[in-house]
């Protein structure tokens, strides 16, 4: 059984607990605090467990030349990449306001710390868990410092090799047992042939003592629901209020009507996963009573006859007789009384018949 742990106060993940659903707002708020709050409310109304943002301390994440690089993308919010990122970056006070709003709404709040200074701030802010974006999963100094903070961690694995993920597992495990790994492919939007859901199964084999999840950038909801059916215990999807808005993530995001359908489908699939014990269920009794078959006499069987298979057949019959799966057990048994042609073969007609224990 995969490890279970408390990801957020009062919310366990792993084992048989419900899948934890993260609404990745990221920077789809367009740098507007009011839109960010509207998206937090949307995430709550759609049934998400957590609203997540992305926090950077830009001078720690980028060098000067990267920030000064001209940015001519149609998605640009400034003439340079630095201007673009500054437009989308909320201040510390704004993050405190967003966290307070999320508490009022009743949804967990966190952010991906996109550099070590951002992690320090989020730690001070008191987020329930750290999300490690794929771009920092092989940033081992960052990963080590973050794991040593003692908060639970959710680690995406986009752009990484399996060997790197083994090293990530060992590094984090040495100081923090409360973490999970998400299968992820870093492409926006993601084509189905690049999703590789089978890696979820491989992670479950390689890391059996931690929950495994899925972070998706594909269009639609079907693939994410399939990931849950394969055992993903945490899922993360980008959300937006409008896919036509400026910004490179919107196209790979889910609008409210899609996200609410995703949550509904995940909860439905979780119900359908049910039990691994195969048995006749109470809901099947009516069908079984109507259509369930019994062993009947193919021909008249005189009292004292030793049964052979050519004397028997299987039909829907009244009254109910031996179930079909016991027909081979009847071979060689002696009948105590005559059984008429087409009559059900019942226990009281068989000499010294010991009914097998049913499980």
Strand and helix layout:
Elements: E1 5-8, E2 11-13, E3 20-26, H1 33-46, E4 50-55, H2 58-61, H3 64-68, H4 81-88, H5 92-105, E5 108-113, H6 116-125, E6 130-132, H7 140-147, E7 153-156, H8 162-173, E8 179-184, H9 198-206, E9 212-216, H10 222-229, E10 234-238, H11 256-273, H12 285-291, E11 294-297, E12 312-315, H13 327-330
Parallel strand pairs: 3-4, 3-10, 4-5, 6-7, 7-8, 8-9, 9-10
Antiparallel strand pairs: 1-2, 11-12
Helix pairs in contact: 1-5, 1-11, 7-8, 10-11
Please explain how this structure is put together.
The chain is an alpha/beta fold. The chain is built from 13 helices and 12 strands. An 8-stranded parallel sheet has the order 5-4-3-10-9-8-7-6. Strands 1-2 form a two-stranded antiparallel sheet. The chain has a two-stranded antiparallel ribbon with strand order 11-12. A hairpin with a 2-residue loop joins strand 1 (5-8) and strand 2. The chain is elongated and about 100 Å long. The model has no long low-confidence stretch (mean pLDDT 96). It comes from Pelobates cultripes. Its EC number is 2.5.1.57. It catalyses: aldehydo-N-acetyl-D-mannosamine 6-phosphate + phosphoenolpyruvate + H2O = N-acetylneuraminate 9-phosphate + phosphate. Keywords: Transferase.
Apparent shape = elongated
Number of strands: 12
Distance between the termini: 24 Å
Tell me the structural class: alpha/beta
Q: Which stretches of 5+ consecutive residues score pLDDT under 50?
A: none
Give the oligomer, counting copies of the same chain as homo and different chains as hetero: single chain
Mean pLDDT score, rounded?
96
Helix run count: 13
Q: What are the secondary-structure elements, in order, as H or E? A: EEEHEHHHHEHEHEHEHEHEHHEEH
**What percent of residues are in strands?**
15-25%
Strand order, sheet with most strands: 5-4-3-10-9-8-7-6
Rg (C-alpha, Å)? 30 Å
| Percentage of residues assigned to helices | 25-40%
Main sheet properties? 8 strands, parallel
InterPro entries: AFP_Neu5c_C_sf, Aldolase_TIM, PseI-like, PseI/NeuA/B-like_N, SAF, SAF_AFP_Neu5Ac, SAF_PseI/NeuA/NeuB
Protein name: N-acetylneuraminate-9-phosphate synthase
Catalytic activity: aldehydo-N-acetyl-D-mannosamine 6-phosphate + phosphoenolpyruvate + H2O = N-acetylneuraminate 9-phosphate + phosphate
EC number: 2.5.1.57
């Amino acid at each position: 059984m995969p490890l279970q742990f408390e990801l957020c106060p009062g919310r366990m993940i792993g084992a048989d607990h419900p899948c934890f659903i993260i609404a990745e707002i990221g920077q789809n708020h367009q740098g507007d605090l009011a839109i960010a709050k509207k998206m937090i409310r949307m995430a709550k109304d759609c049934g998400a467990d957590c609203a997540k943002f992305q926090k950077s301390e830009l001078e720690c994440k980028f060098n000067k030349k990267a920030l000064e690089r001209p940015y001519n993308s149609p998605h640009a919010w400034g003439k340079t990449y630095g201007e673009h990122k500054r437009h989308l970056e909320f201040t510390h006070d704004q993050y405190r306001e967003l966290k307070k709003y999320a508490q009022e709404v009743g949804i967990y709040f966190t952010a991906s710390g996109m550099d070590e200074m951002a992690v320090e701030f989020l730690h001070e802010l008191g987020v329930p868990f750290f999300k490690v974006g794929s771009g920092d999963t092989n940033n081992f100094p960052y990963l080590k410092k973050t794991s040593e903070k003692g908060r639970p961690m959710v680690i995406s694995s986009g752009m990484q090799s399996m060997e790197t993920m083994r090293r990530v597992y060992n590094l984090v495990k040495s100081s923090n047992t409360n973490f999970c790994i998400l299968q992820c492919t870093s492409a926006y939007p993601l084509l189905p042939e690049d999703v590789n859901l089978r890696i979820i199964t491989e992670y479950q084999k390689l890391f059996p003592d931690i929950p495994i999840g899925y972070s998706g950038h594909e269009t639609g909801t079907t693939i994410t629901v399939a990931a849950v059916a394969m055992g993903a215990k945490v899922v993360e999807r980008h959300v937006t209020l409008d896919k036509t808005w400026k910004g490179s993530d919107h196209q790979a995001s889910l609008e409210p009507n899609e996200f609410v359908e995703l949550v509904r489908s995940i909860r439905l699939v979780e119900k359908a996963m049910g039990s691994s014990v195969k048995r006749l269920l109470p809901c099947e009794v009516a069908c079984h009573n109507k259509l369930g078959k019994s062993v009947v006499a193919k021909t008249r069987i005189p009292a004292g006859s030793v049964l052979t298979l050519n004397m028997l057949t299987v039909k829907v019959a009244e009254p109910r007789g031996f179930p079909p799966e016991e027909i081979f057990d009847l071979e060689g048994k002696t009948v105590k009384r005559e059984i008429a042609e087409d009559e059900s073969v019942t226990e009281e007609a068989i000499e010294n018949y010991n009914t097998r224990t049913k499980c």
